[in-house]
Amino acid sequence: MEYNLTNTLFEHLGVGIFKYQFGIKEGFVYSNRALSKILGFSDKREIEGLNLEKFIINKVDREEFIRRLKRDGKVELYETTCQTKRNKVVWVLISAQLVYEKKVSSYIEGIIQDVTKYKGANEKLENEQDSLQTILDSIPDAIYFKDRENRITRVNKFYAKGFGGKVEKILGKTDFDFFPEEQAREMFSDDTQVLKTGNPIVGKIERTLLPDGTWNQVITTKVPMYNNKGKIVGTMGITRDMTAHANAERDRYTMVLNALMVLSKALEMRDPYTQSHARDVGIIAQRIGKELKMSNEQLMHLKIASELHDLGKIGIPLDILIKPGKLSDLEYSLIKEHTNNCYKLIKNIDFPFPLADIIYQHHERIDGSGYPQGLIGKDILLEAKILAVSDVLESMTTNRPYRVALGIKNAIKELKSGSGTKYDPDIVNIVLKIVKKSDNMIFWKDK
Ligand SMILES: [Fe+2]
Ligand SMILES: [Fe+2]
Description:
It is built from 15 helices and 10 strands. It is α+β, with helices and mostly antiparallel strands. The longest helix has 28 residues, at 243-270.
């Protein structure tokens, strides 16, 4: 009765149960229904008498299993493959013990679990992880993953390279372990913002101090990482090194500017009246820019635009340029061509600010009475409006071939009367303030 009950229970278990006889008559002497199913038999009696070799066909695995059994008397969760009746391979876990009956016959009693499903899933996951890492490693940008505490959980090869290639020294750390505090704090605040809002930060350009002490310029994108319940579990970032590009761009820019400055010097050599005009207009313009709280970069742009603003005069016949006395209408219209000339010369050169337009507009007046386009105030660039006022101030206080210097008082008179019509009133006010502060002196000549 007891045997039958056990038998019935075994038959309904979801794991395979077996008894295997060792010795002269080797083979299965008992198997339950679940084992038949695992091994692909429709009737469990088909298994009886069959040898273990028929199932664990990998010789090394089989011999190791028997060796451990004989050594320890039992084996727990031994992982191997079995071949089914239809030659399919299934992954199994075998737990078994060696038993002796009447001290003569030895048997193996044990259970077999089919783990193909989990094994497959694990292998698939491992393969996917491997493929993901391979893809990440093939990208020549630094890629990292961080958890909610901003600790680095995964990096690609390119990222690791920046830190001596030792991935194990990076994982679990934060930016505070690698970067200067101020920089790490900014990175931390960006990561926190992405975690909190779920909004990515795209294409942020930043300068980074590397552990080897060199600076590089990078462009970074940070995105939130979600789990399958839609919760943000961390961030992922991609950083592209733009240092070489930025350096090449800066070199190109410097080269072009140098070439234009040479042309500007050539113009000065040709026309002594314009000597130092461009430089002084630059000093005035930058002074106005400072009062307007412009950034150092914007002030530099003003300086460059001023240095080059009359470059187009290089295309005007010299006898008109230095003609003493009044110019005819035709001659004056030729002089006016200098804005067009310069625009044509530089409009196709790529600058990081609208240099060609600023220069093109430096003779525009806010009421539309200027040239060459007759633009009105709202359409004129701020830099061009600053240049216009600086140009008038400098020209009127300097000798010209056709007249002597008119003096700063007359220049101020002209600016005041044209304020709000020809010239931007805010800029005129700034100039008045500066001139007053310097006791009506030509302040740009102090430099
Ligand atoms: Fe001009
Ligand atoms: Fe000028």
